[in-house]
Design brief:
Number of helices: 3
Number of strands: 5
Strand content: 25-35%
Pfam families: Glycos_transf_2
Radius of gyration: 15 Å
Distance between the termini: 29 Å
Strand order of the largest sheet: 3-5-4
GO molecular function: hexosyltransferase activity
Largest sheet: 3 strands, antiparallel
Order of helices and strands: EHEHEHEE
InterPro entries: Glyco_trans_2-like, Nucleotide-diphossugar_trans
Structural class: alpha+beta
Protein name: Glycosyltransferase 2-like domain-containing protein
Shape: globular
Oligomer: single chain
């Protein structure tokens, strides 16, 4: 069943170190509470990822959706298994996999979206 009361906010980032922090703060400070926040990280060459990771505590009680490639689609990107290990190292547990996208010619699955939640956290913060 689709929850029509859920708002999805998507931020696509590539070399966004100058704006990503302000963008995340703006989304997290909204009065609406029933929303999902998806950050699509584009394998930036600046410190965008470090800025996103600096919000780790803010995401403790919230899920994070991460695009994970089955095979390399972008130069030097982390593949599925590496991303699973990386997220586990950060204290997140994979809770769900959603279909990503397929090669239109072969039908081969190229990317999935992983839904992660912080492990070992109480609901009281």
């Amino acid at each position: 069943m689709i929850n029509s009361d859920l708002l999805s906010v998507v931020t696509v980032s590539y070399n966004s170190s100058k704006t990503i922090g302000k963008t995340i703060k703006s989304v997290l400070n909204q009065s609406i509470k029933n929303f999902e926040y998806i950050i699509v990280y584009g394998n930036s060459t600046d410190n965008t990822l470090e800025i996103i990771k600096s919000f780790n505590d803010k995401f403790k009680q919230k899920g994070i959706e991460v695009e994970m490639s089955i095979e390399e689609l972008y130069q030097d990107e982390m593949l599925y298994l590496d991303m699973l290990l990386y997220m586990k190292k950060l204290g997140f547990e994979l809770c769900s996999l959603e279909n990503g996208f397929y090669d239109q010619n072969s039908g081969k699955l190229l990317q999935v979206d992983g839904i992660f939640f912080k492990t070992n956290t109480s609901l009281n913060g």
